[in-house]
């Protein structure tokens, strides 16, 4: 991992068109400003990880057993 | 006359026009772009989202409003732009179901990562909502109690 020291007001540039600026920092928190092209999505890491992990968990192998489970769940859902 | 090549996924025939494209894939599945959404009457209101590039891989989808009628996530203009959405009528929203293999009543939906589909352009994306009020594992049964 590349580690750089920056002060409030200073920036780093990632690639040609992403700039991350240290807006403010105190002992605990660092406030970042991120400028990136519209096509680049920016998320808090833990939020992104949560979705990624849940997607992996939700990925099904499409086995016969699961199809049956789905039908049973659908029945239960419609009854609700 | 050119005959269309018959393609199928899990025994379900489909044409290229039915394929839905996730330009950026989904978190954890960045390299998968082509999917098909299917429904079977006995499994309604659940749908399947099949990967065309990785046969066998699929997700279960449901309209979130059937589980949480008040669900109305904040979707940015940017996120809608990605879908080239011309009219709100062309937008479909789903959430991904995590099936519990041991006890289906414990199955959940991911309210933080809804899947948006532009049914006209056949474009889709999974958006990430940074909202602490929303649950990645919201119960389907029992109304969140």
Task: Note down, in words, how this protein is organized.
The complex is a heterodimer of chains A (80) and B (145). Chain A is of the alpha+beta class and 80 residues long. Chain A is built from two helices and three strands; from the N terminus they run βββαα. Chain A has helices at residues 45-58, 64-79, and strands at 11-14, 18-25, 30-35. Chain B is globular, with a radius of gyration of 16 Å. In chain B, strands 3-4-5-6-7-8-9 form a seven-stranded mixed beta barrel. A two-stranded antiparallel ribbon of chain B has the order 1-2. Chain B has one helix at residues 77-82; strands at 7-9, 12-14, 20-22, 34-39, 47-51, 58-62, 91-98, 108-118, 123-126, 138-139. By secondary structure, chain B is mainly beta. The chains are: A alpha+beta (80), B mainly beta (145). Chain A binds chain B through residues 38, 41, 43-44, 47-48, 50-62, 66-67, 69-78, 80, and chain B through 10, 24, 26-29, 42-46, 48, 50, 56-60, 66, 78, 81, 96-99, 101, 104-105, 107, 110, 112-113, 126, 128, 130, 136-137, 140-141.
Characteristic key phrases:
heterodimer, A: alpha+beta, three-stranded antiparallel beta sheet, B: 145 residues, mainly beta, seven-stranded mixed barrel, two-stranded antiparallel sheet
Question: Helices and strands of chain A: which structural class?
Answer: alpha+beta
Poorly predicted runs of 5 or more residues of chain A? none
Q: What string, H for helix and E for strand, traces the elements of chain B in order?
A: EEEEEEHEEEE
Task: Give the termini distance of chain A in whole angstroms.
Answer: 51 Å
Strand order of the largest sheet of chain A: 1-2-3
Query: What overall form of chain A do the CA principal axes indicate?
Result: elongated
Regarding quaternary structure, what we see is heterodimer
As a percent range, the share of strand residues of chain B is 25-35%
What gross morphology of chain B would you assign? globular
Strand order of the largest sheet of chain B: 3-4-5-6-7-8-9
């Amino acid at each position: 991992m590349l580690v750089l020291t920056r002060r409030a007001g200073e920036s780093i540039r990632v690639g040609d068109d992403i700039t991350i600026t240290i807006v403010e920092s105190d002992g605990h928190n660092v406030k970042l400003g991120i400028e990136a092209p519209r096509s680049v999505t920016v998320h808090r890491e833990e939020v992104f990880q949560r979705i990624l992990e849940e997607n992996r968990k939700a990925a099904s192998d499409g086995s016969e057993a699961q199809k049956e489970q789905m039908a049973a769940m659908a029945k239960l859902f419609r009854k609700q | 006359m050119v005959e269309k090549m018959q393609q199928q996924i899990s025994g379900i025939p489909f044409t290229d026009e039915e394929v839905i494209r996730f330009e950026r894939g989904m978190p954890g599945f960045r390299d998968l772009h082509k999917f098909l959404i299917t429904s079977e009457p006995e499994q309604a209101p659940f749908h399947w989202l099949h990967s065309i590039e990785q046969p066998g891989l699929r997700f279960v989808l449901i309209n979130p409003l059937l589980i949480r009628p008040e669900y109305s996530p904040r979707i940015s203009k940017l996120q809608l732009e990605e879908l080239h959405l011309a009219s709100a009528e062309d937008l479909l929203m789903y959430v991904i179901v995590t099936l519990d293999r041991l006890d289906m009543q414990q199955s959940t939906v991911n309210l933080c990562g809804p899947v948006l589909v532009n049914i006209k352009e056949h474009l889709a994306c999974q958006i990430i909502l940074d909202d602490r009020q929303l649950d990645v594992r919201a119960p389907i049964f029992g109304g969140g109690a």
